Please model this.
Amino acid sequence: MHPILKLVIQRLALGLLLLLAISAVIFLGVEALPGDTAQAILGQSATPQALANLREQMGLNDPALTRYFHWLGGVVTGDLGKSLTNGTDIATAIGQRLGNTLFLAGCAAVIAVPLALTLGLIAARYAGKWPDKLISAVTLTTISLPEFVAAYFVIYLLTQVFPIFQPVAMVFPGMGFWAKLNAVALPVIVLVMVVLAHMMRMTRAAILNVMQSAYIETAELKGVPPMQVIWRHAFPNAIAPIVQVVVLNLAYLVVGVVVVEVVFGYNALGQYLVDHVTKRDLPVVQAVGLVFAAVYIGLNIFADVVAIIANPRLRHPK
Amino acid sequence: MKLTLAATIGICLTAAFVLSAIFAPWIAPYPLDAAVGGVWEQPSAQYWLGTDTIGRDILSRLIYGGRITIFVALAASVLAFSLGSFFGFLAAVRGGMVDSILSRIVDLMMAIPSLIVALVVLSVLPLNLTVLILVMGVLDSTRVFRLSRAVAMDIAVMDYVEAAKLRGEGQAWVIFREILPNALSPLVAEFGLRFIFAVLFISTLSFLGLGVQPPLADWGGMVKENKDGLIYGRSAALMPAAAIAALAISVNLVADWVLSRTTSLKGGRGG
Amino acid sequence: MADPLLDIRNLKIEATVYPPGEKPQDITIVHGVSVSVEKGKVLGLIGESGAGKSTIGLSAMAYGRGGVRITGGEVMVNGRDILKIGAGGLRKLRGHEVTYVAQSAAASFNPAKKLMEQVIETTLRHGLASRDEAEKRAVMLFGKLGLPNPETFGDRYPHQVSGGQLQRAMTAMALCPKPDLVIFDEPTTALDVTTQIDVLAAIKEAIQDTGVAALYITHDLAVVAQVADHIMVLRHGKKVEYGDTRQIIEAPRQDYTRALVSVRSIEHEEKQPTADPVLRVENVTARYRGTAFDVLKNISVELHPGQTLAVVGESGSGKSTLARAITGLLPPSRGRITFAGRELSAEQTARSRDDLRELQMIYQMADTAMNPRHTVGTIIGRPLEFYFGLKGEEKRKRVQELLDEIEMGKGFLDRYPAELSGGQKQRVCIARSLAAKPKMIICDEVTSALDPLVADGILKLLLDLQKIENVAYLFITHDLATVRAIADSIAVMYRGEVVRYGPKSDVLAPPFDAYTDLLLSSVPEMKLGWLEEVIAGRRMESAGN
Model:
């Protein structure tokens, strides 16, 4: 078997194993924490009889391991159980909201990735000169802002000082694509702001790192023009680190999206998660937590696979 | 190395935040929870930053809130540091099984974003300051672990550490006299970054309603309380958000300065 | 006389340095040097690190590395000043009229592209030939440079070929566009000595066959003497001496040049073995944990008090591993080590404090061998305190005595390693090991990272100290000149085995085994025509076989 194929398969298997381990942590680890689910649902004033009934009904008297495998079996077949608080099917609820979350994150990524790469390239090209310093100074401040703080500054600026947008982002089924886009404009701006700084700084570092290699000097000493140096000699070697940067930040976007959804009252997965954490609706929290973990791990596997494929030493073994 | 302008600003602002947190009861013009004025009053000589949704003085709440935010963040980052650097050094010096087991546990914890882990865990645990500090501290210790392990590993393979071992020095001398002095600067800079992260983390949790619970107030919670003020065009509602940003940026400036000092020390003269 | 091909006049080069905690400073690194090379001739530029030789070499392409600026003078190539031809003009010059061969070809080839693509890139870019012609020429050059399978060599990626082959490929890359001048910047320095000679011969032949002019930059006078028509000796960015190769080698005019020519002529009389060796290594075999391959195979050597055993070999021969086995950092799987009459525990941690004290070690890189956060006083004082319990004034006095012994004098006690020069650092390391009053010191390539004259000083110091303290040295090195200078007995190592062992006079006298012969004959000698003699000798031998 080609060594690359072997490595990729290994990496995928490792990812699946990791996801399995995470599912165990999410289920068993949470079970092991001090805290009684039944008590949490019914509150401190619940009678012992009511608690016992609920435990029986939820199967909480079975051993944790049995319940874990039961749960895991459900997860694999797409059955995530029912919400404790309102009895709705969790899989259906996630299905409805996942699309909205991906739409929001996707819009942000479509804007942030090319913008960050371009700015990163400019900063690297003019390293130490004013364009670089300007970009670095601006990004250093935005890096220090949590998502919700950035969100309120953006809201204040774009709905009060310059009233261009509505401060809530409502999307509902049947809404047209353009109407949807208009509705998510503000949250997307916030997400782009938050993710852009990191992505741009890391892109700059990745390119500078490659540009300092001896083979770039060789190319310059061969009389290759600057853009050709970047395109022919730096780019093929910078693919892997840049993809790593992009994916790492997309994974970061997955977290940012949770907070931004809450700020704008955007009905999607993050909001759903936070609502049910507040209601202590454990089955929902575990299911949504697993979905977020799967997306995050999936993105990281993708980055690693690209890095493996882009490595000439692995592609052309001795 | 001299103080840069940015570092001076950072140190002054950070000091101001810390002092106002320590001396909050003496500085704050009004009590934390008293409705002293009308609803959403504009800033005035009486209420410097205006009043909030039920007529409490925003400046006073900001000063008391800073206390909670800084205290929780500091406690969490101290915990993260003690745990992370202890296990990190242990993994680096002992190596072998100890290292493998610790590293795999940390890999697992870092395989999903901290916020998601925190949300899952907090859906079960009671919400109080101790739990928050513990959860944040443990989650954040993974990053400190990775850094201190990496730093200690880099130093442990140096010839001067080998020379000390060949001399017959004990584990204590190797760790405290050979490794620690060289690992200290990057770790100190990292402490600043971890503290910022903790400030942002606790603020985010409180903002989501899963952090500090009323009647206590912190900055993140205050943003949540006052968010409606934005719709009425009250800029004062942004004050807690601005405070978070200002604290984060000023600590960042200090950490940046410490970090640059560290790298220049490594090079040494003519080195 | 016709105009020279390259004529550098009164060149001044500056650089900006950034001392930590201070303002950036402009320093001059080349002070008005003039260099000229005629068509088809080879000029050798020689000097220690910091002499400015690479900087001058790159100025022939108007290139400044890392913030280096040409601030004065003219660089005439083919009759025009290339400092005035602008970026576009320089692109036409570089890779066409003047090409470059770097020290580390391994880093200088783009890992993501095939060798052929890179070798013919400039030829195509400058429109000098069609792709077919360019590839044909590249294959021809591969063959001329002695690369295996020249027809298919270019299809490989850089990581798929060896370091010596990459260096030849880089030479092919430089020669492919038929340049007027090639700059060779230490092209063989990173190679093992047995590889160096072949690459050197290949480069020399290629230069002669193509009739190209060259600037050959190196710190090794014996190497440059084999290829250059003229030699310029540089020091601290200034010209020391210029002349034809024979004159520089055989009748140097300046003291500095004389020192360079005679640097390896330390007089050392071989001592006879005594009755009781201080170290006896018997049948030691070792492997690294988790591997199935013995890095040391059945090693037996002895070292006598007050004498030096030189362990010689190329990279990967196992010579440093032997040191690790003796110190107990890599416990041998078989065999026994006796030291000062007692058998040593295999594990370092199980050894007595006296065993540890009497067996000291000095490292190749003095930089990393000293804790940067400790002062010289602490570094030398610690063994005194640790082994002898010396404290306070008593310790301070003894440290100062040791500093005097290593010829460093007063004022160093409170300095940090970063404030010392390379030679001073290595001296402090020597003092630290002497502080333990050892019976034996393992010296692991202690002079390899130093400039020749500095290294010479360290070797002399070590020999002097040996006379005073009667300490034995296990001297690990790849440099045969160093071995000749200081050894009493020699062990030649190759692939984990000792292939030749005995008193210096025996080991260095024929008849030789095949490897020792190869190794000894590969070491460049400071005489004209040495390279041709050796290569001719080897060809005759292989023809005879």
Remarks:
- The first helix of chain B runs from residue 5 to 22.
- The domain at 5-32+46-261 of chain B is CATH 1.10.3720.10 (MetI-like fold).
